[in-house]
Design goal:
This protein has 128 residues and is mainly α. It has one domain. It is built from five helices and no strands. Helix 1 runs antiparallel to helix 4. It is elongated.
Amino acid sequence: MEKHINVVAALQIGLSIFNLLIAFLIFTVLKLVGGFVDEPNGATILSLIADIIAIVFIIISVPGIIAGLGLYKRKEWARILTLILSVIEIFSFPFGTAIGIYSIWALIQPETVAAFNENEASNFEIPK
């Protein structure tokens, strides 16, 4: 299951970076189009929409990157966060759906849960 955990971590980080790239693309296009609009209100509205979309995509993407990094370190909170994000990703057809289903499957396996519990237990050992 170690391999599956690493794949899920990489997919979470990859999907989040992809979302950030999409946000940057949408932001750039809307700002560029807003520069060509003769109507002052239209340019302002396009600029506002670009800002809002970029902020929303950033807010959605950052937890995925954090969760992926936490999965590499076998943190239990990262497993829970990834499960929550995976349920949300299911609604993002087609890539999010596939990644979400695979992530849920990989992270609810008994071997995976045991691997994370093992790591958490070793973090709480008192050094002698």
